[in-house]
Amino acid sequence: MTLLEARGLDKTYRRSGNPVRAIRCIDLSVASGDRLGIVGESGSGKSTLVRMLAGLLEPSFGQVLYRGNPINGANREQLRELRRGVQMVFQDPRSSLNPRMRIGDIIAEPLFSPVQPRSIRAHAVERVAELMDLVELDDVAPNVYPHELSGGQRQRVAIARALAPAPEVLIADEAVSALDVSVRAHVLNLITDLVATQNLTLVFVSHDLTVVRHLCDRMVVMRDGVIVEQGRTEAIHANPTDDYTARLLASVPRLPGH
Ligand code: ADP
Fold first, then answer.
1. Cα–Cα–Cα angle for 89, 249, 207, nearest 5°?
2. Has this prediction a pTM greater than 0.90?
3. Whether residue 47 has its Cβ less than 6 Å from ligand 1
4. Which of 60, 162, 192, 221 lies 20 to 30 angstroms, CA to CA, from 35?
5. Does residue 43 have its Cβ closer than 6 Å to ligand 1?
6. What CATH number belongs to 2-96+169-250?
7. How remote is the CA of residue 22 from the centroid of ligand 1, in Å?
8. Is 107 strand, coil or helix?
9. pLDDT in tens, 122-172
10. How far is the CA of 54 from the centre of ligand 1 (A)?
């Protein structure tokens, strides 16, 4: 079943009064169980596209549909469903995590509406422990602050927070790009495991084609706000039909065994 769909999606930003057309009339669909990679050089519009898919950014034209319902014009119940069902992990956990909150509260936050009394929040303790276990942070106390953790641990907190409302789609936007190389593989393996064990549909944005090949069965190649190629990851690697894709692939060091 199609979970997310972009129809004629277009986004123009204003920069010092001048229009920047970041996304140009994109159609895309993400089905349940997909592991979709979105690749392209910096500035090609990847973040803009996925932020619109997550309902975090308003399109200039076109529509995003979640489970067949347009999210602009969605009623409150449908919006709540989107907010719960589609979660994002960003590149830099230092800016995506509130530095003044303890990590246990950061992880628990998406579980509650702001009006819920503290007594109900107490029940979150168990769920937070379960989530910290899931992202292999069981050796960290929930009452520490983000700055007390390493970069890899902070990104695990961001992942735990994203998983808190048991989403069906996880959108990761360059989620491992800011991490040290030694930590990157561990977090990638964690994401791979979580996609399988938590039944997640994955949208994985990266400028790194090697990572996308490892993680994604389908991929979309973006350039200057449009999709220049899409298909099965292995088919595109074997036989890119677009010149730009061929150049991107040629710039990637070959993996042993490929
Ligand atoms: P990518 O994720 O592929 O690096 P982005 O979606 O971040 O691409 O950016 C696409 C284009 O939109 C770039 O030209 C970028 O400079 C521009 N852009 C992104 N965000 C903004 C913004 N908030 N205001 C103005 N221009 C933006």
1. 20
2. yes
3. yes
4. 60
5. yes
6. 3.40.50.300
7. 6
8. helix
9. 678 899 999 999 999 999 999 999 999 999 999 999 999 999 999 999 999
10. 16
